[in-house]
Write a structure and sequence with these properties.
single chain, binds flavin mononucleotide, globular, 7 helices, alpha/beta, about 210 residues, about 15% strand, six-stranded mixed β-sheet
Length: about 210
């Protein structure tokens, strides 16, 4: 059975982001996709210290929710990251989590389907959405989209329940992701994954 990992980056377990993710999870389950929600926003998650130890250890030097979530991400076919908007950006705890999760894990993320979901009261949603999508698009992960950018509006979960278009966007996103996961699984069987070239790492440190 295919599986999608949902990350709630908000400190609020039952807030606006949770309401959006619940709508997605329910729809995915109707599509016969297994879901697992990991709530990270209430944890004390420090940022990446660029020590590079993960290259040899295969995991982050800090043993916390990042290393606990890594194996769930590895087995998942899709990843949905939900964030409240803080000062026009995804919230800091979530960014620390994602920096370390993506940087410290060497397993292939190629063709796992990704999607970001943001929740704001009034503004900063699309900028936050753009930031989160960058984790997927540097990792060979196709991005599932919907009938609007994946956002809900509110200050409380009750507000989000009234955001009918936001919830509709979440359900359409979930169905599109389910379709992509099924289509990619079939295509993998038929054609295999596309070749990925590695090795070139140019940052022009020689000044040329
Ligand atoms: C520190 C902080 C900064 C915020 N900044 C914004 C903002 O820039 N734009 C906005 O519309 N809402 C902002 N909000 C409101 C939340 O993003 C919004 O209510 C969100 O839906 C809460 O999601 P949650 O219930 O999942 O935590 C901010 C809230 C906090 C606590």
């Amino acid at each position: 059975m295919s599986k999608v990992l949902l990350i709630n980056g908000s400190p609020n377990a039952h807030g606006c982001t949770a309401a959006a993710l619940e709508e997605i999870a329910e729809t995915l389950q109707k599509e016969k996709i297994q879901t697992e929600l990991v709530h990270i926003g209430n944890r004390n998650i420090r940022g990446c210290i660029s020590c590079g130890k993960c290259e040899t250890n295969g995991k982050c030097v800090f043993s916390d929710i990042v290393n606990e979530t890594a194996p769930i991400f590895e087995e998942a076919d899709g990843l949905i990251v939900g964030s409240p908007v803080y000062y026009g950006s995804p919230n800091g705890t979530l960014l620390s989590f994602l920096d370390r999760l993506f940087y410290s894990t060497s397993f292939s993320k190629h063709f796992k389907v990704g999607a970001a979901v943001v929740s704001c009261r009034r503004g900063g949603n699309t900028a936050s959405f753009d930031v989160l999508n960058k984790y997927f698009t540097i990792s060979g992960m196709p991005v599932a989209s919907s009938t609007y950018w994946n956002q809900v509006h509110g200050f409380s979960a009750e507000d989000v329940k009234k955001d009918l278009e936001g919830l509709q966007t979440m359900r359409n996103l979930a169905r599109n992701m389910a379709f992509m996961i099924r289509a990619i699984a079939e295509a993998k069987e038929k054609y295999g994954l596309p070749e990925l070239e590695r090795g070139a790492f140019t940052s022009f440190s020689d000044g040329k």
